[in-house]
From TrEMBL:
Residues 326-393 form the Protein FecR C-terminal domain. This is FecR domain-containing protein. The chain crosses the membrane at residues 87-108. The lineage of its organism: Bacteria, Pseudomonadati, Bacteroidota, Chitinophagia, Chitinophagales. PANTHER family: PERIPLASMIC SIGNAL SENSOR AND SIGMA FACTOR ACTIVATOR FECR-RELATED, PROTEIN FECR. Residues 189-283 form the FecR protein domain. InterPro entries: FecR (IPR006860), FecR_C (IPR032508), Ferrdict_sens_TM (IPR012373). Pfam families: FecR, FecR_C. The keyword Amino-acid biosynthesis does not apply. Keywords: Membrane, Transmembrane, Transmembrane helix.
């Protein structure tokens, strides 16, 4: 294959314009390439013309490179330090190779030995690969009516308790207060299934983004003096300031009190802790018999076993990566990673052995399941076999 043709195909890949035939052609060239230096040079040239929509932090990209390009486990484990833009080029080249080799899987079998009992890098059964999640939810009205919110419902308008409820696009429902609220508020519940996400603008203008397997119960219109909602799962809140009406987010075992701010609350039943992470403003977290005040960058965590409430400084970009269209794993155990991925891809998982490794990776949230798992395999520490909506993990 000529260098011009290779450059054309790699550029189209980064621009997400490759046809299936072009992806296979590029996969064949990568699998058969005997010159690693030439491969890296061509991929870097293609990457140099493309500006990614999402940037890795320097620390995460360096740790990914250490895992991807490390040849000997006995070598000194020092994070790779490179200029930021150059780091991204290497990571992109490695990710591209992994994704393309997935589509050319039969070529890999001819060129790479397979460990006994472990599938070849990314083994995929001949069934549809789970797509990424999308904007989907159900809205349960106060009278028990259930409305499925999908793309066919755009423009839907419902009036309830002097509030207009509008489905304005594929991932947003808006509450607009028309008159002063009644004494007794009616409650709605927005429920997001596995493989879903959704956003709601409440009657006071506060915005809530809900992650997969989450629900929010809230009044159609807030009564005077108090704003209170109940969350299960995970949500990111941007609360409209109102000193006369504190905003309360209640989850099992914990409560967040807000005047006006941006914060994330994660309260999945299967996780070991309930967390509240502050991005802007100030909040108070109540739980375990304690009251903790947070400033931006702090996370409060309530241990479900000990009922102990603590706070620590965290990387907030990692906390709200799900809202911004990506997954960021910075030293995260594989089981925690799989819980997040399975919620988004609506999958189940089994483990053929348990790995105590911690993983560093950044994955576009709208990659399909096979692409997501192939990125994790680039660490060289984990393998997957996909069969429809079931994944088997091999250390």
């Amino acid at each position: 294959m000529s260098e011009g043709r290779i450059q054309y195909l790699t550029a189209r890949f980064f621009q997400q314009q490759c046809t299936p035939a072009e992806r296979e052609e590029l996969a064949r060239w990568i699998a058969l390439s005997a010159d690693d230096a030439a491969l890296q040079q061509v991929l870097e040239r293609a990457w140099a013309t493309y500006e990614p929509a999402v940037q890795l932090s320097h620390d995460v990209s360096s740790r990914m490179l250490e895992n991807i390009f490390r040849k000997d486990e006995a070598t000194e484990k020092v994070a790779v330090v490179r200029p930021f833009r150059r780091v991204w080029r290497y990571v992109a080249a490695a990710m591209l190779a992994g994704m393309l080799l997935l589509s050319g899987y039969w070529l890999l079998q001819q060129h790479q030995p397979v460990k006994p009992g472990v599938p070849a890098p990314l083994a995929v059964a001949k069934v549809p690969v789970p797509p990424p999640g999308g904007n989907k939810a159900t809205l349960t009205m106060a009278d028990g009516t259930v409305i499925t919110l999908d793309s066919t419902m755009n423009g839907m308008v419902v009036q309830q308790q002097q509030v207009r409820i509008t489905k304005s696009d594929s991932g947003l429902v808006v509450y607009q207060q028309l008159v002063a609220p009644d004494a007794t508020p009616a409650y709605n519940t927005l429920t997001v299934p596995r493989g879903g996400q959704f956003k709601v603008i409440l009657s006071d203008g506060s915005q809530v983004w809900l992650n997969a397997m989450s629900s929010l119960r809230y009044p159609v219109v807030f009564s005077k003096g108090n704003r209170e909602v109940e969350l299960s799962g995970e949500g990111y809140f941007e609360v409209v300031a109102g000193a006369a009406q504190p905003f309360h987010v209640k989850v099992k075992g914990m409560e967040v009190v807000v005047l006006g701010t941006g914060f994330n609350v994660a309260a999945y039943p299967e996780e070991t802790a309930v967390t509240a992470t502050l991005l802007t403003g100030k909040i108070q977290v109540i739980g375990g018999g304690k009251h903790l005040s947070l400033i931006p960058g702090l996370q409060a965590s309530l241990n479900k076993q000990t009922n102990e409430l603590t706070k620590t400084m965290v990387n907030t970009n990692e906390t709200i990566a799900w809202k911004n269209g990506r997954f960021i794993f910075n030293g995260v155990p594989i089981k925690e990673i799989m819980r997040q991925l399975c919620r988004w891809y609506d999958m189940d998982v089994t483990y053929a052995g348990v790995s105590d490794e911690r993983f560093y990776a950044e994955i576009p949230r709208f990659a399909n399941a096979a692409e997501a798992f192939s990125i994790l395999e680039l660490t060289g520490k984990i393998h997957f076999r996909l069969n429809g909506r079931h994944a088997t993990v091999y250390p």
